[in-house]
């Protein structure tokens, strides 16, 4: 068992104060508090516990919130088990998708760290500050997830260590209040990180990763909350700071995502998955198992699939697949199309699967354990382009860096030349689809750019139903906390 695993188990035992309702965290006993928060190892164990609990959300829910309602996916070979409710956009209070319950457990972990770590003596003040910075960063990121998904949510900044109805059954704060907290936490984190470096795995919050988060947050508030040029300028400055760190584009696009290449130079922040240490990621429901690969499938498709695995419960949509050109190296790295051949040589489409996070094969079994990437350098470049374009600057240099890697020798045919601000925005959004498909970004991108009703087939013709840009709050959540009010329209 690794040191990480031991510390996670210890922290789970101490801080596993799991929620029984939306904000109901079981009390931590006096013995627990007195015996645990005594030294740096206790703080480190609690920190790893926070990451472990967030990993549970990143394994599936993070993708669902960030992309499942977009045009990326459609029906697969297997029974969808209700997943079509996402991409068909038929959610309601009884089928509302993953709720915020476990996200508040991660918030609770961060709140515990922020309360108790300042009172612990460390040999290194930098280590202490780094732990506090990571807690602020995680709390900011989790609230950013919730604000984009549900709008206003209850703000909790203290750990719940005893039963108090007033603290447990909190009403929703306004979305602007939530973003105020997010921005405060980001600034606190940036002020506490001792340097601009990365951990070896690039799977913990660092100063460059928080700069990327800051850029993402301020792009959202610039476009969705009226922040305008002031927020665009703040976003651009943060993203340029992130760009100045030890980051760069890998020449081989496929290598970004491989299990054997975790923590590579393109990554700013990823959620770490490891064999024998964690469960599998969402791609285990986007691949094709061996017994569903037809014998008459084309050799080309069979070779791209390799050893099968998982269940094809939903799959890359035809709409998405048709937007990739053959000279784009991202196409085969992102998905595979399986065709079957008849005796006379005619081919028929059979299925598609996501290859980007295809894991690895061990003893004939495919394991879906690639890291879930929160921020990488190509994402930063395209956010820089977005901020520049919003400010009336030329976004071409950043777009073309991404395209040069994608098209290689064919780049001259795809070189981007700046046009109108609206046309540039369309090109940036399209490039984000090609570059970041299945990384949990697309739905939030569509909402931020104001294009959800235009580009998601199930939302076309429903313009004016702005409530659909937020998610419904589950009836279970509301029944557990009577102070919670449903989002309008649901």
What report would you give on this structure?
By secondary structure, this protein is mainly alpha-helical. The chain contains 20 helices and eight strands. The strands form four sheets. A two-stranded antiparallel sheet has the order 1-3. The protein has a two-stranded antiparallel sheet with strand order 2-8. Strands 4-5 form a two-stranded antiparallel sheet. Helix 1 packs across helix 3 (40-58), helix 7 runs antiparallel to helix 9 (175-192) and helix 9 (175-192) packs antiparallel against helix 10. The model is unreliable at 1-31 (pLDDT under 50).
User: Helix amount, in percent?
Assistant: 40-55%
The secondary-structure class comes to mainly alpha
Number of helices: 20
- How would you write the strand order of the largest sheet? 1-3
The coarse overall form would be globular
Give a nutshell description of this structure.
This protein has 20 helices and eight strands.
Indicate the topology:
Layout: H1 3-15, H2 30-36, H3 40-58, H4 61-67, E1 73-75, H5 84-87, H6 101-116, H7 125-150, H8 165-168, H9 175-192, H10 207-224, H11 228-243, E2 267-271, H12 299-305, E3 314-316, H13 318-321, H14 330-334, E4 335-341, E5 347-354, E6 360-362, E7 365-367, E8 372-376, H15 377-390, H16 396-407, H17 421-436, H18 442-449, H19 452-455, H20 475-480
Antiparallel strand pairs: 1-3, 2-8, 4-5, 6-7
